[in-house]
Amino acid sequence: MRSPKILTTLRSYTSLLFLADLIAGATVAMVALPLSLAIAIASGADPAKGLITAIVAGFLISLLGGSRVQIGGPTGAFIIVVFGVIAEHGYDGLVLATLMAGVILLVAGYFRAGRLIAYIPEAVVNGFTIGIAVVIATSQLPDFLGLSVAHVPAEFLEKIPVLWEARGSFNLAAFGIAVVTLVLIIVLRRVAPRFPGLIVAVGIGSVLVVLAGLPVDTLQSRFGALPNHLPWPQLPDLSLARMVDLFPSALVIAFLAGVESLLSAMVADRMIEGHHRPNAELLAQGAANIGSALFGGLPATGAIARTATNVRAGGKTPVAGIVHAAVILLVMLIAAPLAGYLVMPALAALLIVTAWNMSEPHKWAEYGKGRTSDKALLVLTLVLTVVVDLTVAIGVGVIVGLALRLSRRKSVESDWTPPER
Fold first, then answer.
1. Is residue 254 within 8 Å of residue 105, measured between CB atoms?
2. What pTM did the predictor assign?
3. CA distance 50 to 350
4. Angle 207-209-212 (CA atoms, 0-180°, nearest 5)?
5. How far, in Å, CA of 58 to CA of 70, rounded?
6. 3-class DSSP state for residue 72?
7. Which of 126, 121, 123, 128 is nearest to 412 (CA)?
8. Half-sphere exposure (Cβ direction) of 43: Cα atoms closer than 13 Å
9. Pairing state of beta strands 72-73 and 301-302?
10. Helix (H, G, I), strand (E, B), or coil: what is residue 50?
11. Is residue 348 a contact partner of residue 146, using CB atoms and an 8 Å limit?
């Protein structure tokens, strides 16, 4: 089926369900707010673009999606792709690539491609996910350590020597705030897992900087004031030459959005004992990425961590995701100046924790017990993701993985164990 899940859930909607969705949506918004800002910054974009994406794409994914509890928005999986596209083609190039990716996802959903995830080897997804986590973590080291670096290269092998050369600019105050924030995130997650600890931890780190007058960069000092409204939608430059140049990037964005959203929906199904509609989910991702591009936002997909937070907070229907988008919009309209006081080391700590969780360290032992060929495929995809390019990593990984399956002379069936990230 390709019809949105919200049509099914609203038939028997009650005031009690709305109350549960209202609380869950507000809770998820407090998690999504700092994450959206941090992901945008790590992607090389203006932090406001993260909020725009969470609002527009988050709303459309919940309104049109095939999952009862899926929460959409910008995610860490896109960081290295977005950073590369912006570096090579500029931000307007990213907007066009996102728009094209949305169209690709609409076509995929129309032709019922949602089940094709079963053909992607699990080792490939695990490999590029860990690789992305490594890239995200290293990209946050300048802010985490308070290093003064004029330009950080996008390529991993070029980035490490630049960071090493900048070691003399280490800022103890920035490092201390980053460590405090990181510890608070971990402690609050363990002590009160349903509590929106991310915004509290980042907030406490930022308040410490203001009270102590520490020499630490804030969102406002680096990027200026955040806007207090959404921009008017507009189309990017649709020249044929530009579209041809950006088509490979659009394919990667569409692939990541499709895979990440369907993985997130599978995790949600396991948590609520439900069943999502994969083709409706792809159509929603397509609409969400087109919508985000029209408002100048980033690529978006279903966010596994935010979806899990929604379920744990009591979200029952897609209304919770709509509430989450509405709350972030209210924060933008009313409290944008306050968000400008959030400090860069605290946001860096948040993304490093996110990267650690993305890599799913609790599953590493399980990976080590797998087939030798699967371990080699995981390592190959990981290394290619980190040192070469995500496009190459996915292409090579899928081709090698499918060849390995065929060599085992078994029918090509899904071997997914839905991840918990």
1. yes
2. 0.86
3. 15
4. 105
5. 9
6. strand
7. 121
8. 30
9. antiparallel
10. helix
11. no
For residue 301, the surrounding DSSP H or E stretch is strand 301-302
Q: Are 368 and 348 in contact (CB under 8 A)?
A: no
Q: Which amino acid is at 128?
A: F
**Any bridge partners for residue 218, and if so which?**
343
24, 310 contact by CB (below 8 A): yes
Q: What are phi and psi of 73, to 5 degrees?
A: 160, -170
Number of helices followed by number of strands (H, E) in the chain: 18, 2
Q: What letters, b where the CB count within 10 A reaches 16 and e where it falls short, cover 173-188?
A: bbbbbbebbbebbeeb
172 forms beta bridges with: none
> Which DSSP state fits 194?
T
Closest CA to 412 of 123, 401, 282, 113: 401
Give 272's contacts (C-beta < 8 A, 6+ positions apart): 68, 69, 311
Decide: 252 and 81 in contact? Cβ < 8 Å. Answer: yes
Picking from 57, 8, 101, the residue whose alpha carbon sits closest to that of residue 321 is 57
Per-residue pLDDT of the chain (421 residues; tens, 9 = 90+): 668 889 888 888 899 999 999 999 999 998 899 999 999 998 999 999 999 999 999 999 999 999 999 999 999 889 889 999 999 999 999 999 999 999 999 999 988 887 777 677 888 888 988 988 898 889 889 999 998 887 777 778 888 899 999 889 999 999 999 999 999 999 998 888 877 788 889 999 999 999 999 999 998 888 888 899 999 999 998 999 999 999 999 999 999 999 889 888 888 888 888 888 889 999 999 999 999 999 999 999 998 888 988 998 889 999 999 999 999 999 999 988 888 899 999 999 998 988 898 888 988 999 998 889 999 999 999 999 898 877 788 889 888 988 888 887 655 555 555 555 5
